[in-house]
Specification:
Elements lengths: L7 E5 L3 H14 L4 E5 L2 H9 L15 E4 L8 H11 L7 E5 L6 H7 L4 E4 L4 H15 L3
Parallel strand pairs: 1-2, 1-3, 3-4, 4-5
Helix pairs in contact: 1-5, 2-3
Length: 142
């Protein structure tokens, strides 16, 4: 068993199965990593802003990395990026778009809004783990 870390990532993802797989892969990449999940963009914004029920940073630490899906109900990933850019959150934490979207203009738009990377979610579990490990290594381990 790995030793605990002081690192937290926030996965903003409406698909519970995808969120679970990302959580497992991230914890394998960095044992002890604190992986939080927001079920949609609205909840993700509330978490990042420290709004109730996420107002306690002791209970809900500010993340070292955000993995953001684009296609979500209510508030999509583009809206989260716009909010994060406007609120200065992108200066505090890297946001990586991690999505199954294959829309041709999505990558350009996401990067223009301040995402650090645009990654298409692999469907293969081993590949997912490899990609998440690379993201954790690149953005969380310093």
């Amino acid at each position: 068993m790995g030793r605990p870390t002081d690192h937290t990532i926030l996965v903003i993802e409406d698909n519970e199965d995808h969120a679970l797989l990302v959580r497992i892969a991230a914890r394998r990449a960095l044992p002890g990593l604190d992986v939080r999940v927001a079920g949609d963009g609205e909840e993700g914004i509330a978490y990042l802003a420290g709004l109730p029920p996420f107002h306690s940073r002791d209970a809900h630490p500010f993340p070292d990395l955000v993995l953001l899906d684009l296609v979500m109900p209510r508030v999509d990933g583009f809206h989260v990026l716009e909010w994060a850019r406007d609120e200065g959150v992108l200066e505090q934490v890297p946001v990586v778009v991690f999505t199954s979207s294959v829309n041709p203009g999505d990558e350009e738009r996401a990067l223009a809004l301040g995402a650090r990377e645009f990654v298409t979610k692999p469907s293969d579990l081993d590949e997912l783990e490899r990609v998440v490990r690379e993201l954790v290594d690149r953005w969380v381990r310093a």
